[in-house]
Amino acid sequence: MYSNIFTLFMSPKTLIILNKKIKNLFNMRIGTGRGGMVIGSNQRLSFTGFWVLIVILSYSNGVAESQVVRGIFVFGDSLVDVGNNNYLSSIAKSNYYPYGVDFEYGPTGRFSNGKTFVDFIGKIMGLPYPLAFADPNTNGARLLGGVNYASAAAGILDETGQHYGQRYTLSQQVLNFESTLNQLRGIMGASNLTNYLSKSIAIMVFGSNDYINNYLMPSIYSSSFYYNPSQYANLLLNHYARQLLALYSVGLRNFFLAGIGPLGCIPNQRGSGQAPPGRCVDYVNQILGPFNEGLRSLVDQLNKRPGAMFVYGNTYGSVGDILNNPATFGFNVVDRACCGIGRNQGQITCLPFAMPCFNRNQYVFWDAFHPTEAVNAILARRAVYGSSADCYPINMLNMTLH
Q: Where in the cell is the protein located (predicted)?
């Protein structure tokens, strides 16, 4: 009950600190001169005393608030790219208007009208936007809040998205992170780096391109000829697990693994003509099941590692809720893009200086492939504060208390 009251008056960052302090409070020993007493199930604070303690605790250590999560390291594809592809020879770029039309810094390489999913998470955690790894200015003390390695068209498999040109694949992003570690080690030393990484979070957003820019493109990629959906999911998960263990082996301990959303409902797939008007492409959504289910199971296996906390984010369910109940979330356009050309505004994605829709907060999809800022905000809140239906086994808020 108290957490609902706190939400009205305190920032999310303060809530993280406060929840942790309350948890410690009810397990602490208070000196009495007789060996101390334990505040717990057998002892009850008075109502007034409880609230006095809450007020004191919530303001007692403002500096520590920024230390709950020390840094956010982002690995993924265009859903969370913040400009890495600007520095690569790739046609998968978004550093032009109208991308960023609602973002404070304009077109930066984010594939959205505004903030990405991880931008919102960083804001909740009280951290700056993680900087693009490829930006020459991402060095020195600027690394301390975290780094974003995500690259549009990237996949779990190295071959995924190769028709777009250069991109940082999952395996390359892991190597890029290791180069960042070398710089951080020089800044803070090995022992401090270990502690820093244990208080940082890795956000992983992979898999979508391995389907829409690989498995579902038989004219370019042969994967669908060699693997059925279950076999292909196993292939992806085995590659994914190896890279996750590589990140764990160099010190990261807290991971948020986003599942794949309902790709059969994005404007690009709706616009393909494979489904009746107003309907998603069911086949595409169905083949994602083995991957998402397998990723959730992988979390259980990885959490057996010492000190590890892996969390599965149910992106499919969260986006599905929005699509099935759009009015509840403030949306009224679910089947076409705010910016794009052709059927469902999804056959050709948002081109330079195209005119986007005006009521962007009412659209679920910004372009042929990506959600609007409004959807990203909902997904971020569900990742941080969500129920067991949104995150497994715990949400990101509880991860910080783990």
A: Secreted
